[in-house]
Amino acid sequence: MHRHEDHIAYFIADLHLASSRPELCAAFFDLLPKIAEDATDLFILGDFFNFWVGDDVLSPFTAKVAEELAKLSEQGINIYFQHGNRDFAVGKNYANLCKMTILPEVYTLPFAPEIVVLHGDQLCLADVKYQRYRKIIRNPLVLKCLHLLPKSVRLRISLRLREASKKAKRHTCIENQQCYCDVTNSAVEAMLIQHSADIMIHGHTHKPNIHEHHNGTRWVLSDWEQTGDYIKWNKANGLTRHTFTIPPVESFS
Fold this sequence. Notes:
Elements: E1 8-12, H1 22-38, E2 41-45, H2 60-74, E3 78-82, H3 92-98, E4 101-102, E5 106-108, E6 115-118, H4 128-137, H5 140-148, H6 151-176, H7 185-194, E7 199-202, E8 209-213, E9 216-220, E10 227-234, E11 238-245
């Protein structure tokens, strides 16, 4: 049983874990003992993995991630996961391996009802093509059909989608001098009102900051690249941001 009586929550997003990025995996594994010592709850707000084509396509890398999360859970830490735009296909089977709970795409914290958490891609309404794609790909019938495809086909589809995303992102950078579509303020305001929240925490945009809105405050998590980033909450201190350097690692182990 965890010794903390009050909730101490950690929030992370956009780690984009992959076997080809061993330094990210190592940095995440290094953070877990601190979470085990300090926290009661870990919230993973999407794009935890760089891509996910199904729970039946496991590898030594994804098995190791599940093993480490399960160990964290066994130490009394509640682990919660929200789907991102890259890992929306993570299912109950893998969540059970990790001993984590899959949350709805928008979730109000029961121990801090003033805070609502989400991945954040649903706030980027200006990206009309992506929102259309999101609506289709998240349809349960579409997901079911995708899961029926052979593993090799799903892997090829995933590769093509990632390449298309990179090309679109490069085009956006050239045209608009930015690489990620930002949120639409009206969507933020509407969601704060809908969930009776004063604070929103999300990732996706890779633009870490704290924004003041008419109806509340929005905390944006960073992606993990050269630096790691997490937000911590407890009742006494509220929200605080923490960053750290990610050192290079030669291979995944």
